[in-house]
Amino acid sequence: MTAPWKFTAREIVEKPDLFTSGHRACAGCGPAIALRQIMKATRGPTIVTNATGCMEVVSTIYPYTAWKVPWIHTAFENVAANASGIEAALKVLKRKGKLEHKNVDVIAFAGDGGTFDIGLQALSGAAERGHDFLYVLYDNEAYMNTGIQRSGGTPHGASTTTSPGGKVIPGKPQFKKPIANIMVAHEIPYVATASISFWQDLIIKTRRGLEVKGPAFLHVFAPCPRGWRYHTSKTIEISRLAVETCVFPLWEAKYGEYSLSPQSKVVALKPERKKPVKEYLEVQRRFGHLFKPGFRNVIDEIQNITDKRWNQLLKKCNIT
Amino acid sequence: MTTIKQNTLALNGDEAVALAVKQSDVDVVAAYPITPQTIIVEKFSEYIADGEVETEFVCTESEHSALSACLTASATGARTFTASASAGLALMHEILYVTSGCRAPIVMAIANRALSAPINIHCDHSDSMAERDSGWIQIYVENSQEAYDSIIQAFRIAEHPDVLLPVMVCLDAFFLSHTLENVKTLPNEAVQEFIGDRQIPLVLGHEGEKVPFKLDPKNPITIGPLALYDYYFEHKRQQEEAMREALRIIRQVHNEFAETSGRKYGNGLIETYHLEDAEIATVCVGSTAGTIKTVVDQLREQGVKAGILRLRTLRPLPFSDIKKALEGVKALAVMDRSNSFGGHGGPVFHEIRHVLYGTHSTPFVVNYIFGLGGRDMPQNAILGIYRDLQAILKTERVVEDVRFAGVRE
Ligand SMILES: Cc1ncc(C[n+]2csc(CCOP(=O)(O)OP(=O)(O)O)c2C)c(N)n1
Ligand code: SF4
Ligand SMILES: [Mg+2]
Description:
The complex is a heterodimer. By secondary structure, chain A is α/β, with parallel strands linked by helices. Helices cover 38% and strands 12% of the residues of chain A. In chain A, helix 8 links the parallel strand 5 and strand 6. Chain A starts with 8 loop residues before the first helix and ends with a helix. Chain B is built from twelve helices and 18 strands. By secondary structure, chain B is an alpha/beta fold. The interface between A and B is large, with 48 and 47 residues. Magnesium ion binds at residues 111-113, 140, 142-144 of chain A.
C-alpha cells in the first residue's frame, strides 16, 4: 500500500461533485450522501458501475444523469461481474496502447440486496479472480427501491414489508449476515466498514480501497428515512448511534489484519462510552413494535448479538 | 476470386470458432464452460497460456457473469467474445436483453444443445430459439467451415455503426462442435485486414456535444439508465431499426468476405439449393441442411423437382428473400429442431407460415419437429418427408400440418 493520502477538508469541499445534485433521492437519503462523499475521494479517471436499486434509479432517469463520470448499469445481481469486465477491458486496452489514461479506477456500487443476496455469487467470483476494483456496498438494510423488503442485510427484529412486525412474529427473525467478514475470508487486500456520519474516515477508506492493487470491499452504513421510518433530519444522527452502540462498528482489514478505526477504538478503550442498543432502536419506527409488551425480549437478543459480535471483533483486532 | 493462400486444417466446429476468435484480435473473452461449447473455452485458454493472443480472458463463475463482464468490457471499448449453450444460454437470458438494449456488439458462439429436463447434452435448437426475441442477430451455420467464416463476419456485422447489435453464431452440438472437418483458414493478416479496428460511433454527450459511445473518462456518458413510458419505447424502436439495417449489412459483409475467401453461403441471409424450379421443398436451419442436400440430389436424379431453402439468418428474418425464394413451390415442409409447446408447430414453422401468408399461391405447408435431444435425422427419414410432400401434392390435401419425425408415439 502506498503512503496514506492526506487531504484537507477544504480540498474536499472545493472538489467538484462527480455525483451531482438534481438526482431524485428522498430528502435525508443516506445512500445519496454516501455516494457523494465517496466520489469526493476519487483520485483520477474513474468508471462507475451501479447495480439496480435506489441509487441507480434516482440518479439516471433518462434523459438526465447525476453522474459526471462514465457510468453503466446493466442489472441487479451482476455489478461485480460488470466491474470485472471493465477492468479486463482497461487492462488489455492499456497493454495494446489503446488507452489514453495511465490509470483508470473502477468502482462498483450496490445496495444490500445486490450484495448480501442476489449479487453475492458475482461478488465472490470477482473477488476470487482478483480484479482491481473497489466494491462499495451502500447498506440501507432492505430492498428500498422495491418498497422496503427484507434482505440478508436487514437486522434482527426490523419490520419490513416481507418481514412485518406482526401479532406473533416480531419482524425479521434472522440476524444480519456478517458480509464484511465474509469478504475478509476471501483474502482480498482491503476490507473496511464505514459510516456516512464519519465522513473523513469514509473518504480515507475509499481512497485506500482505490489505491490498493486488487479487490477492495467497502461496507458503508447508509440509513434510509423512508424504510427505517424516522424523520429525514436524523440520518447522520442515527448513523452515529449505530457506531456508538457497536451495532455497526468501524474497522478495516488490510490483507486480513483487522484494526479498529478511531471512532470505534474510543469505545473499545473506554467501554463505558458504549451506548445501549435501545438508544439506537427507539429512534426508528422499523423497530417500534419491539417496544410493545411481549416483544421486549427481542431488544435483549439484539443487545446480545451486538455484544457477541463486538467482542469477536475486539479479539480479531487484538484488543482484550 | 481470391488469390489469398489458405491453410486447410482438420478442425472440429469448436476449434474452428476458437481459431476465428483468435484471428479476430479480440480484446476480452469472458466465458464459462458447458458441453458442447467447452472446447472453445479450453482451446482459447491454451492460446492464452501459450502467449499466442493478447486477449484478456475472464474465466467467470457463471454464464450470467460471463455475459455481464462481456457487456461492460464492450462498453469500455473492447472487442468482446463469449460462447455458451443450453442451460448456460438460459442463465444469460436476462443479460441478453440488456446487451442488445445497451447496443453492445458482442459476438457469441452457441453450440446448440437441448434444454433440461431430462438433462441432455446433445443437439437441438431449443436454447437459441428461446432467445430469438432477445434483440440478438442469429446466424445458424451448416458446417464448421461456415462457423469459422461466420465468426469473422460477425464482428464486422455487430460493430457496424448502422447495426451495433450483438450476434449469435449458432452451430449444432456434436454434429458440428465435435466433428472433424477440413476447414480452410485465412492467414491472420487477412482476417485482421478484413475486420479492422473496432469503430466506436459518436453519440450526443451530456452537453449535446458528440462523444464516443463508450465508457471514456474524457467524455463521460451514462449507459443503461432508467427510461419509463416517456422514453423506453423509442429505445426499442431504434433496436428494430438496427435489425432492419442488419439485413443489408449482413449481405454486404458476407459478399466482401466472399471476395477475400472465395466462399459464399447463398446471399448471406438464405441459401437455396435446387429451389428455382422446385415443386416440393423443405426449409431448415443448421447442419441438417447438409443431409437434406444429399437427398435432394438423389431425388433430382429420379427427376423429382425437389429443393431446399436453408435459413442462415433467423434474426433479422429475411422476410422478402424467403418469400421470393419460395415462389412457385407447391408443397413445403418446414423442419424444426425445437418445439413451441402448445404453439401448434415449432418456431421456424411459425416464421415461415408468417412469411407465406397473403402470397398469391400459398403452398401446402407442413411442419416436422425432429431431432430433439440429438436424435439423428438420417437420409431415409428426410426422403420420407419429400415422399409425404409428393403425396400432399397428389391428394391436394394436408391431413396433419404439425408432425413429429423419428419419435416413438
Ligand atoms: C433479477 C432481479 N430481481 C429482482 C429485481 C427487482 N429489484 C430491483 S431493485 C431491488 C432491490 C434493491 O435492493 P438493494 O440492493 O438493497 O438496493 P436499494 O434499493 O435498497 O438501494 C429489487 C428486488 C430486479 N431488478 N432484478
Ligand atoms: S427510499 Fe431510502 S434509499 Fe431510496 S432514495 Fe429514498 S431515502 Fe434513499
Ligand atoms: Mg437496500
